[in-house]
Write a sequence for this structure.
């Protein structure tokens, strides 16, 4: 009979392996810095901040890989850790050029990190008080960071990196928004490639359309630079702009084009792929989520247009445009503004409350949008109906269906837990923001705090009060900014990968 | 002496094998072939029939027997046979059961047999012993679970803490507990301050549940080597093992392929982590870090499955594997295949029964209340002479006040505590002194 | 030969006749309740007629309904939902009669009177009165009495008294008693359980009356007399929040306020548990109760948060700050709605804290409203289990409460309730702001959120003009109806009403 072996330290997660993969991802991320560097060279602006940031990112990536050498195999369980860490470190990397550039508004690390996290998570909240003061290359980097984050850096890595061929599915599931991943092709890698391809082409189309509006003289402010910059933040439903007053200075035609593309970007990309590339537009009409998504957009637009028109703020086409634009921008969690809707707060609180409420539906699953996502609302609605049915007929058995396909109970429960957790984090965030504001004697209304928490958690962008669409998050204290950085991060990764890291069960064997 | 064994299955056969040399054994079973096989191998008398009937019992000569062992595989048959035998004769009765509820009822003296053995519990104790933590041999619970009386074997090897080998007054005995008795060889010692516990003793401890756990840690050989055990199969045996290990504060993970059963077990065992999985899926083993467990117990219903799972677990890095076997031959197969320990529930049960039959000392202990010792639960009267006197000034006798229950809470008295009227005193005493104690209080 | 076949009327799965019949029977008895304020009116030389007329109408209608509909003696579980929902609509309708008949100018609008009565019976405490002290004392007492009757539940009372509810009352009771507790019966029959609950409720109310009156006699609180004591004991034990004073509890001495705190905390405990402690002396069983512990935890947490703000904001100092913070936290969280100070003038943080406390509520089986502590506890455990299962996909983790396992059905019911609650709250708030826009009432977004939360949670006062010393009068009629509906839904815990809206309920 053999003796029982001696105790080992029981940690259930292979942190080394996770770090190794994060290192590899960082190394590739450093390539992204070349784009703004080229731009800076072209505009004769300082190039070195980008090169230095690229070097540091690549260097730390290499270092991480080297330190954890020999642990290249990542199991399923490490997925959450990889995703969570990657997003945290990627945001840190993105903030480097802000710090190096010597830009006054971004000279503090917290501010730079906030801006970078807001970029990567495609939130679009900004601590900048005057965007136009930034160098053009730095500004483009800010836009570019949203574009990278929109479809997801890990999805990109999956498409590109050979070593992620196996085990990538789970990574992708935790990064892509929505409860379930719909495979477009047999291999996960191919799916990732197709998604990126669609994303790139849609961005290309948008650049062309916007630029031609500029060339045709419909919108004099729309140069190629602006077209690229705004395409970069429209497709990922990001919301950073190059103008202090967001989309307001652009012509109505431009605004309508952006509305269209925001609505597109908020739809399920897998569905779009099948409709656009495989030419099966019928799938769009049959999809329950898309129908609810379009329905919500329409309903909210009508309501807001009516409220705005009735309040006498705008009339005619302007009222329709402003109403629709704001609804689409907020619900798809983009965060552009075609007018300072913060001013509506006092004139028609109904509009303000409606906009905050719209921060919760979000876009479709598998889109670049954030927040709860329409499909989850759909599932919740069906679950409630079943629950009521079963209250009266206790023996009644019926699965919850989406698009006529039964959703398995496990997913149903995960959806419910997600929504409850989302509400819980939202409320806690608001309370913490107010607590902190109270501490530093910052003038923040309860409604402002609720809006700020909802906007950062849902990756929307603007809030109300001083953090309104034309305002800035700059007045918040460092602690509050830290809280919001956390909210953006948690929101982008759809809570679970981050929250799971906080449970003991995750780390135990 | 004459012994009647009901049941000629594996347990019965093992018992017969152990006892047939020194005693006159009669075996009762429904199955003639089994009886025949037994009577060809050993010199025993056989009676064919249902052991739970009066006629068959009388045929088997129960009125002359000194011991009746009911060890068929069916609880209810055993119980009926045991209680009937008790009425029909002067014999001591042993009943095998698989239901912990029956054991509990027996401990509370609501089932009138002399000894009850559960295969599941014996297996669990055997597993617990091999892992290196001696489980409490027997636990009696008083005062709604606040007071426990627990029996331990002191291991021959090294033990943790400063208890073994030191005079009791210097030993660091866990708080809220007392050593009630030390059994060394044939002798039973009343533990006074200068007495000490030696390796190989058997001791009886009275104390709070926490103290009982502290004692079982103390009795562990060396440092506690295992703190994380995976159990495959959540049948009655698996659950019994989980119960015993959880009581030792060992982390337990249970893997059960049937979802319905997994849910039941998860509800029954709040401390364990239960997985509804086969446990044979490499992805699962990898993800749940099964390989990091200190030991794994394979308690599924089929031996080949257990063997396969155990080999798989070894491949994934489990250092210590314990297999539960159901066929006698499997034990050899298991051990030659490299499984560290094979436990056969039937032979463990048989061994325990044989030990009881052989060794009168164990019998007395098992029936603490039997003849030599008694545990009294007495409410102190106002008029008692012992009231209000500090314990250290009470006269030394062979009795020991293990605990006092005052206003619903248990107190484990020290020298300066006093008895108050209306206290419930839990007293451990020799049977001969019962009357004396009752009068004094 | 082809006989003419008439299409059969579509089968209705609910026996509406029996349900309405039972509602009539309950109403009939409500008539008797008007006698109490009538007696007060006699004693203080105020018009008695409104009460007698209301009693006659209520009793008469009850009788009539009972006669007109032919009901089976026994109502099934399916009809139970309808009975409860209808009863709680009818109660405020008849309870509003004295307000209308008494010619009280502040309540002359039927919608306002109905709102006031609904707020009374649901033990909410929201009021449309702008000057409470201007109302007749008998009418005010009626207002307090509605809260007291509604607090423990009219149907619980009916089950305790009405012989015909001897069987089948269990399900009715379950829909009316607050929270998801399996009715742990205090005795073998449901009727005896209902009786014991009411006896306990009555005993606690009497204790409060005696203590308050003593304060008045001994001069500890000069503002207290037998009338005030009774009025406030009624609304305290019901966790209602109506007061006879414009300044709510601020009109009374500190010692009275502390006493109110104690009784509110008691009334917020599960009455089934409270009975075990007070009558059977089983303290331990309750002290170990998961829900009770969390309930105290929330109360302490809320108090501390408010206290920190009050001390920081130098509105109050020392003992005053402590009393105001504790009082407000207890009053809002248990969903009473008394106030010792106008908290709308406190900081923004205090306002948000109070808004969040409105969502916590008291314990299941208490007289409080809102989501209830037990649901928060279970929700937390559900989320924790879900996270655990994301990491360990095969693990089986039952959700436990006090060591016993909560079955999946109950869990799903709780989740459905919470989601519906949040949804209704958001819809209600949106409805309020949009209607305010239409009717040109100045309602800020936060105030709309507050009003919706306060009514749905049966708390009472909200923020802005509807604050603790304010009134809901400025709301338009439509908003008032929305708010009344929220109170109704909140009191019945949504599900009994929501099922009525499904097609499946009515179909055979």
């Amino acid at each position: 009979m053999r003796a029982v072996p001696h105790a080992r330290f029981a940690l259930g997660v292979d942190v080394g392996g996770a770090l190794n993969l994060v290192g590899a991802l960082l190394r590739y991320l450093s390539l992204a810095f070349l784009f703004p560097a080229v731009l800076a060279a072209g505009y004769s602006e300082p190039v070195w901040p980008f090169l230095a940031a690229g070097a540091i990112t690549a260097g730390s990536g290499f270092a991480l890989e080297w330190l954890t050498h020999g642990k290249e195999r990542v199991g399923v369980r490490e997925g959450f850790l990889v995703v969570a860490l990657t997003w945290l470190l990627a945001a840190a990397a993105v903030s480097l050029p802000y710090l190096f550039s010597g830009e006054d508004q971004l000279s503090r690390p917290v501010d730079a990190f906030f801006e970078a996290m807001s970029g990567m998570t495609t939130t679009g909240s900004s601590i900048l008080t005057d965007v136009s003061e930034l160098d053009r290359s730095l500004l483009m980097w800010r836009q570019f960071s949203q574009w990278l984050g929109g479809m997801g850096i890990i999805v990109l890595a999956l498409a590109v990196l050979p070593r992620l061929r196996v085990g990538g599915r789970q990574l992708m599931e935790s990064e892509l928004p929505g409860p379930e991943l719909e495979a477009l092709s047999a291999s996960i890698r191919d799916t990732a490639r197709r998604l990126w391809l669609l994303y790139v082409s849609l961005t290309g189309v948008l650049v062309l359309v916007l630029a031609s509006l500029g060339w045709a003289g419909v919108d004099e402010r729309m140069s190629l630079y602006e077209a690229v910059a705004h395409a970069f933040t429209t497709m990922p439903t990001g919301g950073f702009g190059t103008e202090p007053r967001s989309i307001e200075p652009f012509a109505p035609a431009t605004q309508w084009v952006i509305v269209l593309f925001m609505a597109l970007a908020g739809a399920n990309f897998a569905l779009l792929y099948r409709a656009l590339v495989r030419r099966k537009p019928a799938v769009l009409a049959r999809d329950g989520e898309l129908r609810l998504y379009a329905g919500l957009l329409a309903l909210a637009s009508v309501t807001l247009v009516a409220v705005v028109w009735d309040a006498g703020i705008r009339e005619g086409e302007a009222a329709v445009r402003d109403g629709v634009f704001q609804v689409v921008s907020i619900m798809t969690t983009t965060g552009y503004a075609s007018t300072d809707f913060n001013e509506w707060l006092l004139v028609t609180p109904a509009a303000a409350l409606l906009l905050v409420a719209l921060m919760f539906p979000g876009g479709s699953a598998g889109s670049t949008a954030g927040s709860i996502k329409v499909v989850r609302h759909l599932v919740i609605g069906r679950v409630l109906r079943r629950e009521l049915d079963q209250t009266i007929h206790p023996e009644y058995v019926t699965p919850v269906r989406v698009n006529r396909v039964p959703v398995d109970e496990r997913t149903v429960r995960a959806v419910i837990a997600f929504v409850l957790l989302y509400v819980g984090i939202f409320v806690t965030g608001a309370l913490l923001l107010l607590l902190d504001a109270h501490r530093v004697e910052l003038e923040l209304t309860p409604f402002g705090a609720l809006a700020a928490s909802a906007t950062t958690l849902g990756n929307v962008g603007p809030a109300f009060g001083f953090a309104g669409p034309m305002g800035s998050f700059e007045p918040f204290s460092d602690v509050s900014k830290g809280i919001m950085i956390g909210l953006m991060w948690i929101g982008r990764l759809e809570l679970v990968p981050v929250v799971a890291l906080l449970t003991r069960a995750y780390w135990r064997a | 002496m004459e012994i009647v064994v009901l049941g000629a299955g594996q347990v019965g056969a093992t018992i017969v094998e152990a006892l047939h040399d020194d005693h006159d054994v009669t075996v009762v079973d429904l199955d003639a072939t089994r009886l025949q096989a037994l009577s060809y191998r050993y010199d025993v008398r056989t009676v064919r029939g249902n052991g739970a009937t009066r006629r068959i019992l009388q045929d088997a000569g129960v009125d002359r027997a000194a011991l009746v062992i009911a060890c068929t595989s069916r609880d209810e048959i055993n119980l009926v046979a045991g209680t009937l035998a008790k009425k029909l004769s002067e014999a001591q009765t042993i009943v095998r059961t698989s239901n912990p509820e029956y054991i509990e009822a027996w401990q509370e003296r609501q089932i009138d047999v002399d000894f009850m053995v559960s295969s599941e519990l014996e297996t669990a104790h055997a597993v617990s012993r091999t892992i290196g933590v001696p489980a409490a041999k027997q636990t009696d619970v008083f005062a709604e679970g606040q007071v426990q009386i627990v029996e331990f074997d002191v291991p021959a090897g090294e033990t943790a803490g400063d208890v073994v080998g030191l005079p009791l007054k210097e030993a660091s005995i866990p708080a809220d507990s007392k050593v009630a008795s030390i059994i060394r060889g044939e002798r039973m010692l009343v533990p006074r301050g200068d007495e000490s516990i030696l390796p190989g003793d058997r001791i009886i401890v009275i104390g709070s549940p926490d103290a009982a756990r502290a004692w079982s840690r103390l009795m562990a050989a060396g440092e506690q080597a295992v703190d994380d055990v995976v159990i495959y199969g959540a049948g009655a045996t698996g659950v019994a093992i989980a119960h015993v290990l959880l009581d030792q504060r060992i982390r337990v993970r249970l893997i059960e392929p049937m979802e319905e059963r997994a849910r039941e077990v998860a509800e029954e065992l709040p401390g364990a982590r239960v997985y509804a999985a086969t446990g044979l899926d490499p992805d699962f083993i990898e993800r749940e870090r099964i390989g990091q467990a200190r030991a794994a117990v394979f308690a599924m219903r089929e031996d080949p499955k257990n063997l396969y799972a155990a080999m798989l677990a070894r491949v994934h890095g489990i250092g210590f594997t314990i297999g539960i076997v159901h066929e006698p031959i499997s034990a050899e197969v298991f051990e030659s295949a490299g499984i560290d320990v094979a436990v056969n529930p039937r032979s463990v049960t048989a061994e325990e029964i044989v030990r009881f039959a052989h060794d009168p000392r164990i019998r007395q202990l098992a029936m603490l209340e039997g003849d030599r010792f008694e545990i009294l639960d007495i409410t102190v009267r106002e008029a008692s002479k012992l009231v209000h006197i500090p314990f250290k000034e009470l006269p030394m006798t062979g009795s020991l006040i293990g605990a006092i229950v005052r206003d619903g809470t248990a107190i484990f008295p020290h020298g300066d505590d006093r008895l108050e009227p209306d206290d419930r005193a839990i007293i451990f005493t020799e049977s001969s002194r019962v009357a004396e104690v009752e009068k004094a209080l | 030969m082809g006989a003419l076949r008439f299409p059969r009327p579509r089968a209705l799965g609910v026996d509406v006749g029996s349900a309405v019949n039972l509602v009539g029977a309950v109403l009939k008895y409500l008539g008797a309740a008007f006698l109490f304020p009538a007696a007060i009116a006699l004693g203080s030389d105020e018009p008695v007629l409104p009460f007698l007329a209301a009693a006659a109408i209520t009793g008469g209608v009850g009788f009539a309904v009972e006669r007109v509909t032919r009901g089976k003696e026994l109502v099934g579980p399916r009809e139970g939902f309808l009975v409860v929902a209808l009863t709680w609509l009818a109660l405020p309708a008849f309870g509003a009669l004295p307000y209308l008949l008494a010619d009280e100018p502040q309540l002359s609008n039927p919608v306002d009177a109905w709102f006031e009565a609904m707020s009374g019976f649901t033990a909410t405490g929201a009021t449309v009165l702008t000057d409470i002290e201007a109302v007749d004392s008998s009418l005010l007492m009626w207002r307090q009495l509605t809260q007291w009757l509604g607090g423990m539940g009219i149907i619980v009372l009916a089950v305790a008294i009405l012989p015909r509810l001897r069987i089948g009352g269990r399900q009715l009771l379950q829909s009316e008693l607050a929270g998801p507790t399996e009715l742990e019966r205090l005795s073998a029959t449901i009727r005896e359980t209902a009786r014991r609950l009411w006896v306990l409720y009555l005993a606690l109310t009497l204790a409060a009356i005696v203590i308050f009156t003593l304060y008045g006699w001994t001069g500890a609180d000069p503002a207290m007399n037998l009338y005030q004591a009774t009025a406030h004991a009624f609304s305290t034990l019901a966790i209602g929040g109506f007061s006879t004073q414009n300044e709510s509890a601020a009109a009374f001495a500190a010692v009275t306020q502390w006493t109110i705190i104690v009784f509110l905390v008691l009334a917020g405990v599960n009455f089934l548990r409270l009975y075990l402690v007070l009558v059977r002396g089983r303290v331990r069983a309750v002290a170990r109760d998961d829900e009770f512990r969390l309930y105290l935890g929330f109360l302490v947490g809320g108090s501390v948060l408010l206290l920190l703000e009050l001390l920081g904001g130098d509105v109050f100092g020392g003992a005053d700050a402590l009393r105001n913070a504790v009082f407000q936290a207890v009053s809002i969280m248990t969903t009473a709605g008394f106030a010792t100070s106008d908290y709308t003038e406190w900081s923004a943080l205090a306002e948000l804290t109070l808004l969040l406390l409105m969502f916590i509520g008291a314990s299941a089986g208490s007289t409080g409203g809102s989501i209830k502590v037990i649901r928060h506890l279970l929700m937390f455990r559900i989320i924790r289990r879900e996270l655990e299962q994301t990491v360990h996909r095969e693990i089986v983790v039952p959700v436990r409460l006090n060591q016993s396992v909560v079955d999946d059905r109950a869990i799903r019911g709780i989740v459905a309730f919470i989601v519906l609650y949040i949804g209704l709250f958001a819809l209600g708030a949106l409805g309020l702001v949009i209607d305010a826009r239409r009717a040109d009432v100045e309602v800020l977004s936060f105030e709309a959120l507050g009003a919706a939360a306060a009514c749905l949670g049966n708390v009472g006062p909200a923020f802005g003009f509807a604050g603790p010393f304010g009134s809901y009068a400025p709301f338009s009629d439509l908003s008032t109806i929305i708010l009344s509906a929220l109170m109704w839904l909140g009191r019945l815990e949504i599900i009994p009403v929501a099922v009525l809206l499904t097609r499946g309920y009515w179909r055979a």
Chain C touches chain B through eleven residues (CB under 8 Å). The beta strands of chain C are 395-396, 400-401, 404-405. Residues 379 and 415 of chain C are 7 Å apart (CA to CA).
